[in-house]
Amino acid sequence: VAAPVAVFAVGAAVRRWRGGGAAWAWYVAAALVASSMAVYPLEGIPSQGDTAAAVQPGLDGLAYVRDTAPDLYAAVGWISRHTRQFDVVAEGFGSDYWVHGLQADANVISALTGRPTIIGWPGSHEALWQGDYGSGAASSAAAALITQREQDTQTLFSTNDEKAALSVLIKYHVAYLFVGPFERATYASANGKGPGLTNFRAFLTPVLQLPTVTIYKVPCLGTCLTH
């Protein structure tokens, strides 16, 4: 919005300083820059891969989820309709959005609903925005915070100790817990002997059950927050 005003303001200043010829040279240069930026939508849109979003382009940012992962789409809709803006929804954490496919992606609920979670993409976004990159006390504190949340989430989803899982839920004021394809693939026991995905059904209440997704309601446990 400000760019056209800035172009003409600079043009007027150049005209007063160097005359009309210099001002027209400035306008031509600005037009060339603007034209070069216009190349992006012409080249960028056709360059997208053969995905559901590219095959059926549109303005609905969740249409590709609806068409490729209906259970996830239903879960996103349920959380958007039945939870409050600041309700914490616990889910598994992953590296970033390039690691997994849509059916087993990390932190899709927090990304697609805006609800807070315990930890997001610690190796990229969390480390960047929390100040982990760099040196000094602040960076060390941010790294320790991220590591602690990673460990707590790992405990929550893989422990066989109900009290340990509940302590994490209480610590982060978790209101709902999401178990989808990513959580099952990430926290299931690899050899059948060690701790696998926590048996949440033993102490939490399922509020949405689908073939590949379950959402649990966490009891208040004396720690409910009012918003």
What does this structure look like?
This protein is an alpha+beta fold. It has helices spanning 2-18, 20-37, 39-44, 52-55, 63-68, 70-82, 108-113, 122-130, 137-158, 162-171, 181-187; strands spanning 88-90, 174-179, 205-209, 214-217. The protein has a four-stranded mixed beta sheet with strand order 1-2-4-3. It is elongated, with a radius of gyration of 25 Å. 25% of the residues are buried.
Fill in the keyword field for this structure:
227 residues, alpha+beta
Write the layout of secondary structure elements.
Elements: H1 2-18, H2 20-37, H3 39-44, H4 52-55, H5 63-68, H6 70-82, E1 88-90, H7 108-113, H8 122-130, H9 137-158, H10 162-171, E2 174-179, H11 181-187, E3 205-209, E4 214-217
Parallel strand pairs: 1-2
Antiparallel strand pairs: 2-4, 3-4
Helix pairs in contact: 1-2, 8-9, 9-10
Helix count from the secondary structure assignment: 11
Low-confidence stretches: 99-103
> What portion of the residues fall into strands of 2 or more residues?
5-15%
The pLDDT mean sits at: 84
The Rg value, from CA coordinates, equals 25 Å
Portion of residues within helices: 40-55%
The largest pleated sheet is described as:
4 strands, mixed
Shape: elongated
The quaternary state of the protein chains shown equals single chain
Structural class: alpha+beta
Number of extended strands: 4
Distance between the termini: 36 Å
SSE pattern, N- to C-terminal: HHHHHHEHHHHEHEE
How are the strands ordered across the major sheet? 1-2-4-3
